[in-house]
Amino acid sequence: MKALMNKSMVKELPSIKNKGIKIYMGTEFEPSKDITGGHFYSEGSLDTVFIDALKKTCLQCISLQRVSTCDGCLEWVKKSGVFTTQVTGDQIEEILQTLVLDDEIMQMTSTGYGDFASIPVGKTCYICKSKGEKKSVDSTPFPCFSCQRMSFCSTDGVVSPTTCVYYQKWLDF
Question: In 67-166, at which residue ranges do the beta strands (DSSP E only) sit?
Fold first, then answer.
């Protein structure tokens, strides 16, 4: 194996699942994410510095733009110049889902009105969640997602969270 590695015909891979087992692969092949750990693993260990930097940059993007999509965050990250490595849409999607689970941002569907005017109706987007935010009709910019009138609803429209009986019941729950 050492002779093949010296001739650059074979490479040794770090394994995330089986750390005690050595894995070798031809240099012309790309290893599966199941073996290497995926986007956020570097040389067999989780790259927490990279993850934290991506989280911070995505949060900054969303807070400054008020509303953003995955593509918007990816563009922001690329323009920021913070990262020397290539950042992909899949990585941004995973970071955004982590931020949703960490309760730092909210995932929602664009209504095309108000803050969502620049985002097509029905597209998934993200907004920052304020710490200690209390539910109220005036501070919540989104309607109940099961409402059939969601595409017509906006804070200043005929159909709005302020006038919606079902929305108020949802808040009281």
Answer: 67-68, 105-109, 124-128
